Amino acid sequence: MNIAVLGSGGREHAIVWALAASARCNSLYAIPGNGGSEDVAENVSGLDICDATALVGFCRDHAIDLVVIGPEAPLVAGVADVLRDAGVLVFGPDAYGAQLEGSKAFSKCFMEDNNIPTAAYRSFDNKNEALAYVREMGAPIVVKADGLAAGKGVIVADDIKTAEDAVEECFAGAFGEAGQRVVIEECLSGPECSLLAFVCGGQAHCMVTAQDHKRAFDGDMGPNTGGMGVYSPVPFVTADDMAAMRQSMELAAAACARPPFPLDYRGVLYGGFMLTAAGPRMLEFNARFGDPETQVILPRLETDLVDIMEAVAKGNPHAIDLTWSNQPAVCVVLASEGYPGSYETGKVILGVDDAEALEGVRVFHAGTKRNTDGELLTAGGRVLDVVALGDTLEEARARAYEACELINFEGKQYRTDIGAQLTADCMQYK
User: Fold this and answer.
1) SS3 assignment, position 283
2) What letter would DSSP give residue 9?
3) Where are any strands of DSSP class E within 56-153?
4) Which residues contact 75 (CB under 8 A, 6 or more apart)?
């Protein structure tokens, strides 16, 4: 198959890496790709991944059999709809289904309507009404920008002043149009867990569990980011937890295959759960692979990814049979100094080959590019995803951090505690 993958981050590098390993993959394109994807795919610059018309032309010119949409923005923009109308096979939901991520208010209503356990909430288009609700409910409380905010539009407020400031910032445009409506919900407590599923034909084929680390600094301090590290599986998830999370994902998948959804959901549905004392509660849905969760999930996948994505895109759930490696995986994100705030790019990166020479280590590129001399440079806030497999989580973690030490660029910053709280979390949860 000739395959095109839309996106330029670590998630997309992991996807093209997994697709390239398939004997069924012929020509493989990354649009636009990055400094790492070009090793396994042909990078294509100059195309806007939200310009569906241009993408249709590219697919026709290059005889593309399958398009895989990585980020949320083109999904919400309806790129999958236009490609499908043009006869192109697409892995990714239509615009209606993408609202599960594109609008938190839509997603919360969807959860309510389909009996998916979640936090109590209200949504507001009026700032003063939102502020009044915050004062009425008290803290802790969670304030969310309704729309897409690159993973940064969620504020967990431990006091009323922080919640009020979050509401003010949303309506003042801190998250652009995404913040012109806010969702305010009760603050749940417990460890978080991500469960992704391949969804089509009203069925959910769940993947392995993962736990992301959103905060910028050690000890879960600092602002939320797009994700600073992740591990898989999550060992403190009980059999009862897993059954409850699977049920939520299955309820969602079934609902996505009936009206008002115009087409059954065909892609990845990401469930972000809080494991509360009362059982798992859905925090949010994403309409695509998680980033950086993908970077630890796909290296553990033993089934041919081309086969899976083709079956999903065709709406054929019975052709999906997932098998997984028993080896745990740990990913540590190397970021630019200042991220998630302002940061500089164009710093020379050294040592990636040395890191990948270590047993069980793979480095996915998140924000990199090459200059005319072939040097690898930083080109984003999150720069590299250092992934390691091991016989135990502890071994995988040690390998990942050994690899991190071998990679250098000016301003390199990363969390040193990815997975370090695992034992404590297990004990606390029990």
Assistant:
1) strand
2) S
3) 66-69, 89-91, 121-124, 141-145
4) 69, 92, 93, 95, 98, 101, 102, 267, 287, 288
The whole-number pLDDT of residue 426 equals: 47
DSSP assignment of 114-142: TT--B--EEEES-HHHHHHHHHHH-SSEE
Verify that 142 and 225 share a domain, yes or no: no
Residue carrying the six token digits 């898989």: 232
> How are strands ordered across the β-sheet holding 229-232?
279-286, 267-276, 192-200, 203-212, 229-232, 329-335, 382-389, 361-365
Same domain, 216 and 249: yes
Output b/e per residue, 386-406; b: 16+ Cβ within 10 A: bbbbbeebebbbebbbebbeb
Question: Quick one: pLDDT at residue 421?
Answer: 72
117 found inside a domain: no
User: What pLDDT, on a 0 to 100 scale, did the predictor assign at position 150?
Assistant: 67
Structural domains counted in the chain: 4
CATH number assigned to the domain comprising residue 412: 3.90.600.10
Cα–Cα distance measured from residue 127 to residue 124, given in angstroms and rounded to the nearest whole number: 7
Among 92, 115, 142, residue at a domain's last position:
92
Per the confidence metrics, is the pTM higher than 0.85? Answer: yes
| 331 neighbors 46 (Cβ within 8 angstroms) | no
Q: Write down the pLDDT at residue 371.
A: 93
| CATH number of the domain encompassing residue 174 | 3.30.1490.20
Query: Which residue type occupies 52?
Result: A
Give the domain extent around 176. 126-180
Structure confidence at residue 154 (pLDDT): 85
Residue carrying the six token digits 């994403």: 286
Instruction: List C-alpha distances in Å: 117 to 109, 247, 319.
Output: 12, 10, 30
Name residues of the chain where pLDDT drops below 50: 423, 426-430
Between CA 79 and CA 90 the distance in angstroms is: 10
Residues 293 and 378 in one domain: no
Residue 427 has a pLDDT of: 43
Residue 380: closest CA among 30, 17, 15, 9:
9
Cα angle 312-318-323, degrees, rounded to a multiple of 5: 80
